[in-house]
């Protein structure tokens, strides 16, 4: 039997308010939130699911409610929640992209380990990188 077809096409991000986080990334990336659903019965009003569909050239981004959300700490610290992944976003003008991200609600990290990369945090506290 041969290898089955496997295609990587989406990333799902857990968040305490997935609809708001989807709106942030839509503004940041200049894309559209294509799917939104509210909370399941018994969940708080900020629960739900949202999607930024792919145009065929980029990954689809999904955002789902995480009931036990704890904001990650970056860089990692002992006995604190840490990010297990982050988004890397290529840009052509790092300073302009950082200014745009901050205007959308991102926060610049204090630690910046590389001159051609900027680490920021989205409104839920996930780190993401803008890079040349």
TrEMBL record:
Task: Outline the extent of the VOC domain.
Answer: 7-132
The organism's place on the tree of life at top rank: Bacteria
Pfam families xref list: Glyoxalase_6
Q: Which SUPFAM superfamilies match?
A: Glyoxalase/Bleomycin resistance protein/Dihydroxybiphenyl dioxygenase
* UniProt cross-references to PANTHER family, sorted A to Z: CONSERVED PROTEIN, HYPOTHETICAL FUSION PROTEIN
Under which name does UniProt file this protein?
A: VOC family protein
């Amino acid at each position: 039997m041969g290898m089955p077809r496997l295609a990587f096409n989406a990333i799902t991000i857990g968040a305490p308010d997935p609809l708001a986080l989807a709106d942030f990334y839509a503004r940041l990336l200049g894309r559209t939130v294509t799917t939104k659903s509210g909370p399941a019965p018994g969940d708080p009003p900020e629960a739900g699911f949202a999607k930024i569909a792919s145009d065929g050239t980029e990954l689809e981004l999904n955002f789902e409610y995480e009931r036990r959300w704890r904001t990650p700490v970056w860089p990692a610290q002992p006995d604190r929640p840490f990010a297990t992944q982050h988004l890397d976003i290529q840009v052509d003008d790092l300073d302009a992209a950082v200014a745009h991200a901050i205007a959308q609600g991102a926060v610049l990290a204090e630690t910046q380990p590389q001159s051609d990369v900027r680490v920021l945090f989205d409104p839920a506290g996930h780190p993401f990188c803008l890079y040349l």
